[in-house]
Automatic annotation (TrEMBL):
Lineage, opening ranks: Bacteria, Pseudomonadati, Campylobacterota, Epsilonproteobacteria, Campylobacterales
Organism of derivation: Arcobacter defluvii
Pfam families to which the protein is assigned, alphabetical: ChlI, Mg_chelatase, Mg_chelatase_C
Highest taxon, organism lineage: Bacteria
GO molecular function: ATP binding
InterPro entries hit by this protein: CHLI-like (IPR045006), Mg_chelat-rel (IPR004482), Mg_chelat-rel_C (IPR025158), Mg_chelatse_chII-like_cat_dom (IPR000523), P-loop_NTPase (IPR027417), Ribosomal_Su5_D2-typ_SF (IPR020568), Ribsml_uS5_D2-typ_fold_subgr (IPR014721), Sigma_54_int_dom_ATP-bd_2 (IPR025943)
Protein name listed in UniProt: Magnesium chelatase-related protein
Positions in coiled-coil regions: none
Segments forming domain Magnesium chelatase ChlI-like catalytic: 201-400
Residue ranges annotated for the Mg chelatase-related protein C-terminal domain, each copy included: 410-501
Amino acid sequence: MKIIKSASLDTIDAICIDVESTFTKGLPNFTIVGMISTSISESRDRVKSALLINGFKFPPLKITINLSPSEISKKGTHFDLAIALQIAFFDTNKIDFSDYYFFGELALDGNIKDTSLIFPLVLSLSKKGQINKVVVCEESAKKLVNIPNLEIYKIKNLNDAIEFVKIEDKEKYLYEKKDIKYKTLQIEDEKYFYDTNYLEDFKDVIGQDMAKFAAMISAAGNHNLIMEGSPGCGKSMISKRLRYIMPPMSLEEILEKAKLQALDFKEVDFIPLRAFRSPHHSSTKSSIFGGGSSNARMGEIALSNNGILFFDELPHFPKSVLEALREPLEDNKILISRVNNKILYETKFIFIAAMNPCPCGNLLSSVKECRCNELEIQRYKNRLSEPFLDRIDLYLVMNDSFNDTKNRVTSKELHENVIKAFTKQKNRGQKELNGKLADEDIKKYCILDEESQIIMEKARFNYQLSFRSINKVLKVARTIADLNDNEIITKNDILQSLNFRRR
């Protein structure tokens, strides 16, 4: 019995699937079994049409195609190619398919198409070391070309696929590898990529020097940031420009971003620009955290992994959403449990939020009068709990003064500073940036001089800082020290870090 390899997604990980077939005497029939979805069931008509149009005789036998293992639910139209090859070579067992994986949807005329699942499938198999050679169409090959240690063979249609299987010299179908053409940063053995096209530039933000400094700290160390200020003072402008000054991305992070784009049914790109997700405050809890009764779907926090999750009008988000954010902000992962499956998502995003100081927004305004009473303001503030705020690294109160029009810092200048700080962190041997350091790494990398230790002890007593708050202060101080090119944390670094704590 011939076996042709393909794969199916189990939530976000790929599982190898063996496409098997039997051809027995009996009334002509064509069935596909193995816990298949409607999209696979419909492939019978696509495969039959493609074979007949291209001159192949459909065997007058009882054809049974099995997708093994049968207990796993399978979906996707990419099984078409493997199923068609099983039927095209039904009368021979001499051909060995074992070295190759086949993916592709068949058009009715036999042309092979790309599908949204092929890239995440191949990437997942490659990370597990289960795939070396893959046969796909040209559109799929363009996406897969950036995956390392992978031989890609490009075919156009069913006739090409059949010829590829028959011939011994398969080199003419080999797809040429191409490098990612962006600026690179080499740190030891790892290569990092970054883009210098600043489509939204910080030079458009008038004034707000402290907010720009906070944004640079946030980007350089992956720190969570909340900005509080009057409407129109620049909170959203700064948040949307933050992604352009984020640290360079490794090839693994670029591929992971592309995988999430494919799973979100978006066009895949390989630009070293981190994800930016901005759900509306009326979004449901399931849309933000992921869910679904049978198949768990990814939410906004999973799709923003290695990027930015931005909440505008923060207090207007439901209390249940804000409280549920505490675990992914602290642990950098979230477990979605359902009756049929459980899935663990990584959530290493920067959480950025913008909020008004009161319901009417004018409490901090220098030109408008606040219309809210004390009870309304207190209720508005109480929407954010202390445990939630304790997970925020940088808390900034912005004014609405636009007098300072001279200091127009650009995104390019901020990005260069971020890259310098990023390089220092990686050269220290840090696997994670400062904002995501584990407790044991804080002791190793966040070293204070004598003056800083005295100030930290006084701050702990005067501000009644929790253990988590102390760690947040140390992490921010470490990033500020990196931006100031200091090997250890100095008095100025720790004072600036304490200045960004919420009081």
